[in-house]
Write a structure and sequence with these properties.
- Two copies of one chain form a homodimer.
- By secondary structure, chain A is an alpha/beta fold.
- Chain A has three domains: 53 residues, 434 Repressor (Amino-terminal Domain); 131 residues, Response regulator (Rossmann fold), CATH 3.40.50.2300; 130 residues, Rossmann fold (3-Layer(aba) Sandwich).
- The first copy, chain A, has a six-stranded parallel sheet with strand order 2-1-3-4-5-11, sandwiched between helices. In chain A, strands 7-6-8-9-10-12 form a six-stranded mixed sheet, sandwiched between helices.
- In chain A, helix 1 crosses helix 3 and helix 8 crosses helix 9.
- The longest helix of chain A has 17 residues.
- The termini of chain A are far apart.
- Chains A and B meet through helix 4, helix 5, strand 2, helix 6 and helix 11 of A and helix 4, helix 5, strand 2, helix 6 and helix 11 of B.
- The structure holds a DNA duplex (16 and 16 nucleotides).
DNA sequence: TTGTACGCGTTATCAT
DNA sequence: ATGATAACGCGTACAA
C-alpha cells in the first residue's frame, strides 16, 4: 500500500477541521460551515460534496470554537449543594433530558461547603463564570445569594430553583412552601394531633423559612401553639440528633412536621429505632418534598409533595427563554402547587 | 458627570478581555496572559500593574478561548444511565470534589435510554465529542461499548466505571463483583438458607454477569444448586414484579441474592408488602452496592458493599494521569475489594 | 449560492 | 523579562 505524502508536512492524526473538509470537498470553509448550520442556504450539490467529505474524514464540529465565535456555549451551569437528598438527582435527570432535547448541556457543580464565605464558594463562582455558560440553574443551596449576585453582575441569566435570594430581578421557581406548611398543620390536626412540633432545615434557607411560616400560620388558624421547634440543617444525622432531643423530653410532642423527606426518614429512624416509639401510632410524622418511590423504604411516610416535574419544566422554560430572548425577558416568579400524598413502598403508591 | 467617548465606538458593557487589561495596564497581551498562567516568569512590577488593571475591569480569563488555544478543556464528560440508584449520586458528589480540586469540571450526560442502537445514544456520543472533553468517565451504562469504541477512535482517554466493555485498552475500575457473589452465597448458606435464588440486573451488563458468576461459583462450592433465577433489569418496578413471580411458586426460595441494593429494596417491598412474608424470618435477602444510609429506610438489609470512595479515587487518578501523561499511559484494570455489611437505619450503622 | 477575510479571546513562538 | 504575531477552529458580514 503506497504511502501518500502530504505536500506540506506529515502531521500525526489530528482531529479533522472544517478547513480539512473544505479542502477535500473542493469548496470554501463557509460552504462547510453553512452545511452544518441549520437554516442556511446551500446548494444540494455542494451540501452532498461536503457531507461526503466530512464523513470520509470523520469530521465533527468543534463546539468550543463555535462558542468562541458565536458567544453561545450551549452549556448551562447547574449548581447543587449536595446529592444526598434524593430529590435532586431526580430533578437533574429530568433536567438533563429537557436541556439535551433543546441542544443544551449541563456543566455540574456540587458546592457542598458548610457556611458561606469560605473560599470554596469563591472558587466555584470563579470557575463557573470562566466557562462562559449561557445560563445558571441554582438549586437550593446555602450559597445562592452570593453566587446569584455575581452572576447578575456578569449578566448571566440565572434561575433560582427552590431558593429565593435577596437578589432583584432573578427568576425564581419554587413550590408553594407556605401553603405546604399550612397543609401539614391541618393534616396533623385532623388526625388528632394536638402537641405538634416542627423540625426545620437550614435555618436561613428560604424553603425552610417558608414551610415554617406556613406551618405556624396553619397552626394558629386552628388555635394551636407550636409545641416544639428544632433545626436539622437538612442533614440526616443532625435531624436524627435533634429529633431524639425533642422526643426525650418529659412531655414529648405527639406529632411533628419535618421540613423535608430526607430528614423525615432520619426522624422516623430516631423515633422507631432509638426511642422505640411507634409511627404513626405514637407519633405522627409529615414530611415535605418528592423523592422517588425507591427512597421511601419501609417508612410509609405522609408528605407534602412538590411537583418536581413541573418545577423542572418551568425552570428550563424560563432559563432558555431568557437566554434566547437576550436580556429582554423580565424576571419571573413561578410558584407551583403542592399536595398531600401518602406513600409507602410496602403498598402500591397512591 | 462627563461622558468619556471611546475613540472608536461606544460598545455596550461587554466582558473585559485580556486585550482590555493589557491596554489599561500599558503592557502587552502576553504579559497579561503570563500573569494569569502559573509557572511563568513575570516581573513583580508588571504583575502588579496587570493585576490592578484586571481588578479594576473585573476581568476573568475566558476558559473557552484558552481551550481553543491549548487544546485542553479541563472538562471531563461523565456519563451515567440513571440517577435513581442512589449509588451514583453519591459517586458523582465525590467525583465532583476530586476533579474540582485538580482543576477539572464535569460535563454531565444522563443517557437513560432503553436498549442500544437508538438514536439518543448516537446524539449523546455526538454531543460529548463535540465539546472537546479531556476525558470521559463512563459509569455503568448499557451503552458503554458503543460509546467507548467511539472515544477510542477519537483518542479520548476513557475510564469505564463498574463496567467492562469489549473495547481493548480502556482503563477499567470496578469492584470485585465475582468475589462479592461468592460472599453472598457463603453468607446465605451460613445463615441456614438452602433454597437460594438470584435476581440479576440488566442481563448483558458485566456487573450483573460477574455477580451471578461468583454467586454460582460460591453455591457450587457449597454443593448447592441455584434454586431460582430472574432478572430485574436494575429497575425498581421490574425487580418487584419478578420477585413476586419467584415467590408465588408453590415451593418458593428461602433466600435470595439480589444484584443491587436498589432492586433489593424493591424485592423486600414485594416480599413484605405484597406477599406478607417476613424478612429475614421467612426469607433472607442479600443485596449489593453501597448506597448512603439515608436510603436504607426500614429495610435492615444485608449487603455486599463496594468501596465507592476508593473506586472513585482510583477512577479520577487513572483518568487524570492518562490525560496529563498524554497517550503514554497504559490501560489499567483496577479491582477494588468488597465486604459484607449489615446496615439498618433503625440501628446505628456498623 | 459561493468565496474572502476578519473577528472571537487566548496561548505559543520567536525575537528583542 | 517583554512584546509582536501567528495559530486555534469556526461564524459571518460583505463582496462577487
Amino acid at each position: 500500500m503506497p504511502r501518500h505524502k502530504a505536500p506540506s508536512s506529515v502531521k500525526p492524526t489530528r482531529q479533522p477541521t472544517l478547513t480539512d473538509v473544505a479542502a477535500l470537498a473542493g469548496v470554501s470553509t463557509s460552504a462547510v460551515s453553512r452545511t452544518f448550520t441549520p437554516g442556511t442556504s446551500v446548494a444540494k450539490s455542494t451540501r452532498a460534496l461536503v457531507l461526503s467529505a466530512a464523513k470520509k474524514l470523520g469530521y465533527r464540529p468543534n463546539a468550543i470554537a463555535r462558542t468562541l465565535s458565536t458567544r453561545r456555549s450551549h452549556m448551562i451551569g447547574v449548581v447543587v449543594c449536595y446529592l444526598h437528598n434524593q430529590f435532586y438527582p431526580n430533578v437533574i435527570e429530568l433536567l438533563s433530558q429537557l436541556l439535551q432535547a433543546r441542544g443544551y448541556h449541563i456543566l455540574l457543580f456540587v458546592g457542598n461547603d458548610r457556611g458561606p464565605g469560605d473560599n470554596a464558594t469563591d472558587a466555584l463562582i470563579h470557575d463557573i463564570l470562566q466557562y462562559q455558560v449561557d445560563g445558571i440553574l441554582l438549586a437550593s443551596t446555602t450559597l445562592s445569594s452570593l453566587v446569584a449576585a455575581h452572576c447578575q453582575a456578569a449578566h448571566i441569566p440565572i434561575v433560582l430553583f427552590n431558593r429565593v435570594a435577596s437578589v432583584q430581578s432573578a427568576t425564581t421557581v419554587e413550590s408553594d412552601n407556605f401553603q405546604g406548611g399550612q397543609l401539614a398543620a391541618r393534616l396533623l390536626f385532623e388526625r388528632g394531633a394536638r402537641r405538634i412540633g416542627f423540625i426545620g432545615g437550614v435555618v436561613d434557607s428560604s424553603t425552610s423559612r417558608d414551610r415554617e411560616a406556613g406551618f405556624l400560620s396553619g397552626l394558629s388558624a386552628l388555635g394551636l401553639p407550636l409545641f416544639a421547634t428544632a433545626y436539622g440543617d437538612y442533614d440526616f444525622d443532625t435531624a436524627k440528633a435533634v429529633a431524639i432531643d425533642m422526643f426525650r423530653r418529659p412531655d414529648p410532642p405527639d406529632a411533628v412536621f419535618v421540613a423535608n423527606d430526607h430528614m423525615a426518614f432520619a426522624v422516623m429512624d430516631a423515633l422507631r429505632g432509638t426511642l422505640g416509639l411507634r409511627v404513626p401510632e405514637d407519633v405522627q410524622v409529615v414530611g415535605f418534598d418528592n423523592v422517588p418511590q425507591s427512597g421511601w423504604g419501609g417508612y410509609e411516610l405522609t408528605t407534602i409533595e412538590q411537583d418536581a416535574e413541573r418545577m423542572t419544566h418551568a425552570a428550563v422554560e424560563a432559563l432558555l427563554n431568557h437566554i434566547e430572548a437576550g436580556a429582554s425577558s423580565p424576571a419571573q416568579r413561578i410558584v407551583t402547587p403542592v399536595r398531600v400524598v401518602e406513600r409507602s413502598s410496602t403498598r402500591p403508591a397512591v
